[in-house]
Amino acid sequence: MTAAATPARIPERTGLSLPAASSAVWLYALVGVLAAMHLSSALGRSVNWDEFWFYSQVETVARGEFIQPLQTIHTRFFAWWLPAMPGSEIDHIIIARLTMFVCLAITALGIMLTAEKFSDRRTALIAVGAYLGAGFVLQHGSAFRVDPIVAACLTIGLAIAARTQLKLPAILALGALIGLAGMVTIKFVLWAPAFAGIALYRWDEEGFDWRYPLRWIAAGVTAIAVFAALYALHSAGAAEQATQSASGTLGSSASRMIGFLDNVRFDIVSKGAVTALPLLIAAALVPWIVLKSNAGVTRRIAIIGLWLPVLTPLFYYNSFPYFYVFILPPVAVACAFSLPVITQRYGTALVAAVIALSAAAVWIVDARGVTEKQRILVDAVHQVFPDPVNYFDCCGMIAPFPKANHFRTQWGVDQYLSTGRPVMLETMQAKPVPLLVDNNREFTSALLGIRTDVYHPDDFAALQTTFVRHWGDIFVAGRDLDGGEQVQWDVLVPGIYTVKGDDLIIGQTVYSDGETVTLDRGQTPLANPGQSKTRLIWGDNLPIPAANSPEKYWTAF
Questions:
Q1: Per the UniProt record, which residue ranges are transmembrane (predicted)?
Q2: What pLDDT is stored for residue 251 in this prediction?
Q3: pLDDT at position 155, please?
Q4: For the chain, does the N or the C end have fewer beta carbons within 10 angstroms?
């Protein structure tokens, strides 16, 4: 009799298996991957002209010079230590970006904490991922601007308002955060619907206790006190000048802030939408889901209040890509109301994958290597001018040097032209400005006759007759004379000048190549007796950088 065959046992697999599609592991992994992308952008993305401008303000404060008190309180923190760090302006901005990265992390935490008030931890993490993965947030979330700072302040403030009963410590913290946010930027008021909705909802949860609104009033008083204290400290020693500056800032900002449908930047809005499709879809569903929801009235009002800031690009002038870092956190919180509908249909893992892929598409195509071109230009300026001099440029790119003109954004140019005064000529008449860095090619365009309407006519005439191209986009005070040419030159930049080329007659004296002469302001006769072009240029035989001058050293929005 034969024994029955024993069936062979199949060995169990001991390899690792992927987490379930609904596992929260995917969401933590999503946030981790997005954080790595943000850190990479902070360290490697080209410096934006706004970042140069913000760092120039830090250097201004570090030099002990006056700076308008509104919207610049952050400069005090950075002025204590950042200019003393090793490296160039670009290195310092990258270091500052790491601080902004911390602010971004705080914002993400605030989104999660507030979103949990309306949903669960998983949905809150998806809301965080949708925010961090939005294209403009990915590109500018760690940029050295006020937006990451104020977003962190207000998002944590929102979490405090949503998750606490506003006892004394919470009142003080909320008021301090709002007061600080107001000093960082006056556009903090655009979050008003979000805070109002949360306040009403929490009051309902407190049984409409009459004492609860008093806690908000106390927080408001605290905010005003913190704002006033910071303003007084920041403007100490220049009270009258600060008052005039603050009035001008408030007036110009208010005039730009309101303009329904007149200020819409459709190109930016459309790009922002395409590069943030997961967040866009979730945000678009919010009103519909709120309308169908059986939730209490105040809960729905709170969600709509959080959602309303998404409409600000319809009227806010400065709705540039960096603005979305500031305005989208409450919208991401509102999406906690709509995201469950999406995850229930498609699953957590798929939604996380779509957010990650959408962000990766932006991160992969983002320009690389532009920062090195910027370094070439900045280093070249420091080679030509080892010591700081007054200079003109668009954005304060050479931060250790005193910038002698306004910030030449479109807004800045409009304000400059609205004065009707030759501001740059007046500046040159008041102090020597030997350097012009044409880093937005505005001056070159004007010289070529392409666009002269960005200058007051007297300013353009003064610039045209005062500056010559030294290297690339570096222009230095001086004058070129063709062979046989004689001119009466109005010297607007006094100091030592060097003759370059053939002999040059200045007054009654002949100067040869490499010789120097000191000129005062006013009319000076110049004559080139030779046949070749000769040059008179400010400085004592300024060096010419050996590197090739860079092209295309800005990354567009």
A1: 16-39, 93-112, 171-194, 214-233, 273-291, 297-316, 323-342, 348-365
A2: 56
A3: 99
A4: N
